[in-house]
Each structure stands twice: as C-alpha cells, then as structure tokens.
C-alpha cells in the first residue's frame, strides 16, 4: 500500500512540476518541486523513514521531463545523500538555522551537480552544455534558494504533521521518549 501511495504521489508531483510550476516562474526561474521534496526528505528525521522511497518520485519525474535521462536522477540522488550525510554528521541539532543551512547547501550542491552532469552529457553530444553568466549569480541562484527554502520548509512541516502518532498528537511526546522524560 505504501508503494502504491508513493507511486500516486510521484505522478502527482511530476505533473505539478511539469504543468503548474513553470507558470510560477520569476525571471525564468521556476520552483523545483522535486528538489524541495528531496531536501525535505533528507533533512526530516523519523524511525519510519525509508531512503529508497524517495527514488520513485525522482525516477518518474526524470522519465517525464524533457532532459536526457539520468541528469535529474543522479543530481537529486547525490543531493539527497549529501544533505542526509551533512544532517547526520555536521548538523546534529535540528534547529531552524541548521535546517535552513542544510537547504541552502543542498540547493547549491544540486546546482553544481546539474552543471557538471549537463556538461558531461554535452561532451557525449547528448544535451546542451550549461553556460554560466553573471545573471545566474545575482538573479537565478537567489531565487532558486528562496524557492527551495520555502518548498522544503513546507514539506518538512507536512512530513512532521503526517508522522505524528495518536500519542504524540495528545501529549506532544513520542512514546519512545515518554519513559525517558518521566
């Protein structure tokens, strides 16, 4: 059942990314729903979290998007594991500043991965290479960071709301932590 729901979510997320998000573009920069989901899922901590579940939405989106297959999948997977590693090793606390820092670092890492992978694919004549300009650094990157922070914080909030057990909803404390606090 969980895989079926994830598949439906994947199709919905890919459809939203390909149809609705381009209409929200400012200066040619559209919100990247998949990057927001990946960053939120990498930062979110839960005992019920399964890392392989994030692969399905990425794969469905990469199949439906117009880029050469693999650029988005590899870039988002590398970003997912990089942000999860940073979250586990460097940012052990889960305060607001650490979450924002992880989102910003993850977004920059994803853009670097996209740039490198697109240029590798361009050397094989599979796509066009990405050429950076000054506009990228003063317009595109700040808008991308703003979009990803907003989307990731929204998805982290949603994941936390979905993950609450009935005991947590009434007491605000997980059952696992309840014995330690008393």
The residue ranges in which pLDDT falls below 50 over 5 or more consecutive positions are: 167-182
Mean pLDDT: 79
Q: Find the count of extended strands (DSSP E, 2+ residues).
A: 0
Our Rg estimate from Cα atoms comes to 18 Å
Summed up:
By secondary structure, the protein is mostly helical.
Account of the protein in words:
There is one protein chain. The protein is mostly helical and 182 residues long. Helices cover 71% and strands 0% of the residues. It has 8 helices and no strands. Helix 2 packs parallel to helix 4 (71-89), helix 2 crosses helix 6 and helix 4 packs antiparallel against helix 5. The longest helix is centred in the C-terminal third of the chain and has 30 residues, at 134-163. The protein is globular. The N and C termini lie far apart (36 Å). Mean pLDDT is 79; it is low at 167-182.
What attributes does this structure have?
single chain; 182 residues; mainly alpha; 8 helices; 71% helix; disordered C terminus
Summarize the SSE layout with pairings.
Elements: H1 2-19, H2 33-43, H3 55-64, H4 71-89, H5 96-123, H6 134-163, H7 166-171, H8 175-181
């Amino acid at each position: 059942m969980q895989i079926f729901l994830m598949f439906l979510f994947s199709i919905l997320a890919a459809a939203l990314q390909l149809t609705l998000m381009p209409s929200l573009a400012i200066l040619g920069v559209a919100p990247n729903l998949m990057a927001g989901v990946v960053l939120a899922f990498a930062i979110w901590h839960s005992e019920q979290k399964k890392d392989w579940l994030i692969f399905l939405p990425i794969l469905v989106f990469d199949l439906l998007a117009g880029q050469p297959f693999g650029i988005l999948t590899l870039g988002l997977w590398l970003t997912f594991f990089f942000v999860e590693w940073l979250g586990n090793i460097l940012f052990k606390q889960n305060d607001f500043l650490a979450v924002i820092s992880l989102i910003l670092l993850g977004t920059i890492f994803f853009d670097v991965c996209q740039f490198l992978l697109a240029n590798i694919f361009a050397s094989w004549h599979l796509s066009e290479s990405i050429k950076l300009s000054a506009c990228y650094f003063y317009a595109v990157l700040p808008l991308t960071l703003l979009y990803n922070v907003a989307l990731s914080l929204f998805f982290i909030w949603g994941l936390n709301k979905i993950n609450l057990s009935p005991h947590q909803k009434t007491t605000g404390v997980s059952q696992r932590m309840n014995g330690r606090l008393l």
